[in-house]
């Protein structure tokens, strides 16, 4: 398919129906990659801390997410290159450095994703977290072994995304949150928590996440200047899907917190579902946790490997098997030694630097003719992206400085 002649930036064999399916797949792959165990926990914890004012944090983070993702997806599309190849053209060797950060972060966080999938299985069926993780890993591997793996991955991400939002929406109705107060505080908050904003941005478009959908579009042949309107809409839509889940979960948690109920610190999101809808809610949490975790396992594995596919012909040829090995290694680490907390903390701090580095590289690339040709990147997008780079770089460095001493104390 990649060798066919393009017309107006569109590969002829990509029919309109297939094209729409690919765009939806990219949207949901990115969104469900963002919606993982950490996403669920962060949202509930910050809601408990900030109450209705957390709405303001969500609003600001959505704007920053859009600024980062639009820049990255558009520049990859117009250059028709993956992020690591663009980085190597900006500065030789930089692409290998970014790829190493992505793969390291993706592998470490995939251990947490596998753990989350195991926890979801534990809630639903009473099996041990380790057994649940093993079953989930088999399902994830099976998706990449089927003949049309990309299509199956797209459909699976869409199905899981709809299920997560739908079930959480049910919990919102049972929790009966003060929606009016949430709307007011989203624009006039009692307090502004900058760390919460940066945490949400990092959790939505940090690390490998923002590249998952962008690389999926490239792999499917949706690229070039004529594809930019579609790419831009897809970038915004992906943030929209992830944000809908964030808002719905926020409202569910707010409904519980507003009643004066206390969330269990060992598993805050499970508390929200259980306190709002009883035992049924707890089982629904199991489904949502499993769906969030398994889609993040798939997104992390697919995107991490996509960052090394162009480095050697053999990697490109056997990339699906490398994805399978990536998932298996993540599962073995979890089953054998559990969740490596210190490693996750360190890589989490490093992940905070991936977005400003990768986005910064993209903004530089947008003005290099050998990368984007005669494409003119909108100035307002550059300014928007620059603000995200500065804010995330500051907080990423701050996190590294504060976390590393704790690791070795």
UniProtKB/TrEMBL annotation:
<feature type="transmembrane region" description="Helical">
    <location>
        <begin position="287"/>
        <end position="308"/>
    </location>
</feature>
<dbReference type="GO" id="GO:0005384">
    <property type="term" value="F:manganese ion transmembrane transporter activity"/>
</dbReference>
<feature type="transmembrane region" description="Helical">
    <location>
        <begin position="235"/>
        <end position="258"/>
    </location>
</feature>
<keyword id="KW-0812">Transmembrane</keyword>
<dbReference type="GO" id="GO:0005886">
    <property type="term" value="C:plasma membrane"/>
</dbReference>
<dbReference type="GO" id="GO:0034755">
    <property type="term" value="P:iron ion transmembrane transport"/>
</dbReference>
<feature type="transmembrane region" description="Helical">
    <location>
        <begin position="344"/>
        <end position="367"/>
    </location>
</feature>
<feature type="transmembrane region" description="Helical">
    <location>
        <begin position="46"/>
        <end position="68"/>
    </location>
</feature>
<dbReference type="Pfam" id="PF01566">
    <property type="entry name" value="Nramp"/>
</dbReference>
<protein>
    <submittedName>
        <fullName>Mn2+/Fe2+ NRAMP family transporter</fullName>
    </submittedName>
</protein>
<keyword id="KW-1133">Transmembrane helix</keyword>
<feature type="transmembrane region" description="Helical">
    <location>
        <begin position="21"/>
        <end position="40"/>
    </location>
</feature>
<feature type="transmembrane region" description="Helical">
    <location>
        <begin position="195"/>
        <end position="214"/>
    </location>
</feature>
<feature type="transmembrane region" description="Helical">
    <location>
        <begin position="320"/>
        <end position="338"/>
    </location>
</feature>
<feature type="transmembrane region" description="Helical">
    <location>
        <begin position="379"/>
        <end position="401"/>
    </location>
</feature>
<dbReference type="GO" id="GO:0015086">
    <property type="term" value="F:cadmium ion transmembrane transporter activity"/>
</dbReference>
<feature type="transmembrane region" description="Helical">
    <location>
        <begin position="156"/>
        <end position="175"/>
    </location>
</feature>
<dbReference type="InterPro" id="IPR001046">
    <property type="entry name" value="NRAMP_fam"/>
</dbReference>
<keyword id="KW-0472">Membrane</keyword>
<feature type="transmembrane region" description="Helical">
    <location>
        <begin position="89"/>
        <end position="111"/>
    </location>
</feature>
<feature type="transmembrane region" description="Helical">
    <location>
        <begin position="123"/>
        <end position="144"/>
    </location>
</feature>
